[in-house]
Amino acid sequence: MPLLRPLPRSRPPAPAPGGPRIVDTVLRNLLAYGVLVAALLAMAGGKPHHYEAGPVPAVHDADITEIIGTWRCVDGTEVVFRADGSASVTLLDGQERDYAAGWRLSGPARWRLTDGPGQGLGRGQHLRLDLPAATGTASRAGTVTKAPGRYTWTFELRRDARKTLELYFFLANGTGSGPGRRGSYVLEKDA
Given 69, 93, 96, 151, which is the most exposed site by the fewest CB atoms within 10 A? Predict the structure, then answer.
């Protein structure tokens, strides 16, 4: 039987100054920063429900007769809802991120009361208002963004302390009390 002898061990060559150690450190740092950025993006993005606006109340008992009439908001905004599903829009701002653009639309529109999942941000009923062709546009002071030719709003419904119906939509991107917070644009019905 031949005698097996271990081969002499050779040492790996010493790394050159600034060689693999620096590369390893840089790669580890890039990986750590990549994980951090991915985590931050995951927390910042996603559904609008993640904003700090509290829960979206649900109304399930709104009747068309509660909608019909004239609704107003600030700076001359007026929406007249009619029983036949037609509406007249005057100086209505865009919702969510469109609000920051500063444009305001006017013209004849169509509306409908909806109920079901995926209609708006909350559960329950929503009001869809479709302006197929704006006949007038305006802008809030300090804004110059071109207004769209057509627009569709989805209003959330809620009841105030007196159980009176309110129509509203959210305003995003710093229009609340801080970055990422939402305010709301509330239409109130004339008495």
Answer: 69
